[in-house]
Amino acid sequence: MKFKIFIILSLFLCNSWSIGSENRIADLQSYALSRNPGIRVLDQRVEAARGLMIQAGLPLNPVAGYVSDDIGVGGTSGKHGIEIAQEIETGNKRAYATEVANLETQSIMLEREILFHRVNNEVRTLAWKVQSARRMLHIRKELKKLAEETEQMGTKFRKINEISEMNLLHFSVQKHEADLAVLVARNREIAAEKELKAFLGPDFGPIGELADSLESLLEQPEKPEDELLNSILTNNPRMMLAKLVVRQKQTELALERANSRPNITVGGGVFYDTQNTSTVAAAGIALPIQIFDRNQGNIRSAQAGYAAAVQEVEQVQLEIQQKFAVIYQEYRIAREESLIYKKDILPKLNKSYEMSIQAYKKSELEILEIFNSQVAVFDAWTKYIDSLTRLAETTTLLEGMLLESDEYLD
């Protein structure tokens, strides 16, 4: 005696599964950026640096004072007058100092851009993780239903001696394993949602449904390797920051060299001589004699800082190239695997399953073989989602300039 199997699998295989369209990843990214304290800290650092840039460009103030001399000479009150002095910069120091402060401002702005990318990448990675966990839970639930139905049919078959006790035990074990798989998948979904919510902040409500589909990543054209690497090396804010630091250190070196040339102080005054009842004037100039301090220590330090900055550019470029080689290879593998599963493996397994159903109806196949065929389909779907998840993670890094949040937190 045969029992009809009511399992709707074709619809599941032929249509990509989604969970709604309440939120988009871009919305979550905007929310995270608007409330990220690190962004706000860097905004204030930029404002502080702009203040220092303004200060560096201000000219030196003159000095004015009251002077008295020869008091008591000839029984008079001596000389009394006003003296004014002005320190005159040499070596274009103010322009160099202003440029150093300007480059420091730009450096902080690039730090902000680095954090911007890392926050965006983290939100996107965690959102894809939530989507993956939800997709996996959906599949595990479907497999659980399948295992329950198969166990029920196996019990009926066993009563009429259509199957052995060993087969029935096998179905029971498969059912318990399916229950466990659902439990694990549900806990992973909860953990993924909590992780995303924790990153977004305590004020964020339930994650809700996400509109972005993992399958949409396969609709994008494959990213050309050389073109993508050149783009990252050009636009990566870490690389831009390293190059900017070179300019900053170069300007600091020029400033220290300018500081080796002393400023000149000129002054003069007008005095009234009570002894001679006359008004007299005085003028003077002061120039430090640089016998010992020629700013040689600061110049040496600035030279070392400049040399280190030049080496840092090469180091950052090497790190980017090494990381790109690994991530891009993972991206290619994940993309190829996902496409193969979507275009070849899943459709063929679906067809094979339908053929096994027909063979079972003709008594050409045992129920255990049907069940194993169904499990193979779901196993393929699990691997497909795994490959899509890896594709999402690597795509996020490649599009996000290879910047990860944990690097910033370290």
Could you provide a short overview of the structure?
By secondary structure, the protein is α+β, with helices and mostly antiparallel strands. It has helices at 10-14, 25-35, 37-56, 93-159, 165-200, 216-219, 225-235, 237-259, 296-361, 367-399, 405-409, and strands at 63-69, 79-88, 264-273, 278-286. It has a four-stranded antiparallel sheet with strand order 1-2-3-4, with no helix packed on it.
Can you walk me through this structure?
The chain is an alpha+beta fold. 69% of the residues lie in helices and 9% in strands. It has 11 helices and 4 strands. A 4-stranded antiparallel beta sheet has the order 1-2-3-4, with no helix packed on it. Mean pLDDT is 89; it is low at 1-21.
Furnish the topology, listing elements before pairings:
Blueprint: H1 10-14, H2 25-35, H3 37-56, E1 63-69, E2 79-88, H4 93-159, H5 165-200, H6 216-219, H7 225-235, H8 237-259, E3 264-273, E4 278-286, H9 296-361, H10 367-399, H11 405-409
Antiparallel strand pairs: 1-2, 2-3, 3-4
Helix pairs in contact: 2-4, 3-4, 4-5, 4-8, 4-10, 7-9, 8-9, 9-10
